[in-house]
């Protein structure tokens, strides 16, 4: 695995949803680095990628309320534990759970294991609210998938939370989740 600046040369061999991520980042003049790798569906799978990218690979969880009327994308450091009750209290939403796969595909055009903030570009009707652990906002860089879990990107945190989110018409709510390595 090697880190490469910018889009892959072989875009014809890539999924359209992945290429759309590179197209948007290039259009927005956002600098990024990329690494191609085997399928990475868990945080453990991302450890070597994390080391090579030298960026915090975010744990991304796609959540919903019990009624399945409100949907959330939670970005948090991979080394933090997720506690539903803690998050529910902060956003005043009872009974958060993992959202069904079909909503992930419908709103974000992403399949399980590939969840990423980049999927918000596909949420043109703003069905998904972005929630971000405050620790993610403190890092200079973050890592995420380009809507597919066989590549990972390294982006400047400020570019994601300003330029990118503005372009895809989303905002975020900062949350404070438990201690790292808890």
UniProtKB/TrEMBL annotation:
Domain YbaK/aminoacyl-tRNA synthetase-associated per the UniProt entry, residue ranges: 37-160
SUPFAM superfamilies for the chain: YbaK/ProRS associated domain
GO molecular function: aminoacyl-tRNA deacylase activity
InterPro entries according to UniProt: ProX/PRXD1, YbaK/aa-tRNA-synt-asso_dom_sf, YbaK/aa-tRNA-synth-assoc-dom
Domain of life from the UniProt record: Bacteria
Pfam families named among the record's database cross-references: tRNA_edit
Family as reported in the entry's similarity comment: Belongs to the PRORSD1 family.
PANTHER family attached to this UniProt entry: PROLYL-TRNA SYNTHETASE ASSOCIATED DOMAIN-CONTAINING PROTEIN 1-RELATED, YBAK DOMAIN-CONTAINING PROTEIN
Protein name, UniProt field: YbaK/aminoacyl-tRNA synthetase-associated domain-containing protein
Organism: Eubacterium ramulus ATCC 29099
